[in-house]
Amino acid sequence: MKRFPGSFGLLGGVVGAVLILLWVGADGYKQTLVTTTATYALIALGMYVPYLMAGSLSMAYGAYAGIGGYAVGLISTKSGLPLILAWVAGPIVAAAVAVLLGLATRRLSGFFLAAVTLLFGMAFTAWLVDAEGISGGSGGLGSLRKLDILGWQPSHYQVVVGCTVVVCVIAFLLDRLRMSPWGVIVRTMRDAPRAVEAAGVRVPVMNLVSLAIGAAIAAVGGGLFTYSAGSVTPDTFTLNLVFLAIFMPLIGGAATPWGAVLGAVIAVELTLNFPAVETSGTLILALGVLVILLIAPQGVIGYASRLTKLVGGRRG
Question: Using CA atoms, how far apart are residues 55 and 60, in angstroms rounded to an integer?
Fold first, then answer.
């Protein structure tokens, strides 16, 4: 029987998610860690399509996550609309902003693209501080109302479960997208754009689509984190998070979106939940990335896959 494409990654992700949820239990601190991990994972997954598949490094993902977060904050505090609409409006607005930014920077690549989008992210943060009437200024938006779905208000643990499910679903869909004809074209476009253009594919349009997909996913993560935290400020999604998101797929394994999820788990564990190194977690993470790149260039998942094949070969 033919194996369902992406089923192995989905199985591993579901098993990992179940184990994490069992570990969390009713512990509020652990629930916060899982929500943070889900946010990191979604931003890293948002960067996966344009960065690792299309080869376009944008540093504006803090802004995209912020758009998702402020969509939740604004709809919650300044309107009577159902809060669930925030996870529709936020990704749509973030995708539109990504397309506009992509059009403005379509002739840039590499360092210049990263620099310009980095400046955009900084400008967006500055605008949030100045736009007090909209964003609440430096204090942000707080006291968000609870999500109400036909009279059902999810508990904090149920929100954690929902965040975990969203990460698994998006990682699975991106894995399927990676293996689809569209994904093959995008990955080929990264390495040989002229050949893809000669085949009749409009490379600039494909780049814009990948940027829109990535921004929408990051906005979903920003919205989930804001709802879980109960507030959002201009400093909620910093450049530090964007830099971490770049390295998460390298840690877990850039060959599959599940590597970004595993990288997020490792990053949060080292930077937030490892008492022995909590004061220098970022330094430990940086050293870990260096070691992984030297020993296992394909990341933890790639290294584990290689070991599995070696063990299987010896048994055979």
Answer: 15
- End-to-end, the C-alpha distance of the chain in Å comes to 22
- Whether the pLDDT of residue 260 is over 50: the answer is yes
Report the distance separating Cα 6 and Cα 176, nearest Å.
6
**Both tokens assigned to 91:** 């990704």
- What pTM does this model have? 0.89
The residue type of 206 is: M
Nearest to 97 by CA among 135, 140, 129, 68: 68
Q: Is the dihedral of CA 38, 42, 45, 51 positive or negative?
A: negative
Percent of the chain with pLDDT over 90: 41
Cα–Cα distance measured from residue 165 to residue 159, given in angstroms and rounded to the nearest whole number:
10
Burial class (CB in 10 A: 0-12, 13-18, 19+), 290: exposed
At residue 149, what are phi and psi to the nearest 5 degrees?
Answer: -115, 100
Q: How many CB atoms are closer than 10 A to CB 5?
A: 13
Confidence of residue 72 (pLDDT cuts 50, 70, 90): very high
* 181-191 and 156-179 helices, crossing angle to 10°: 70
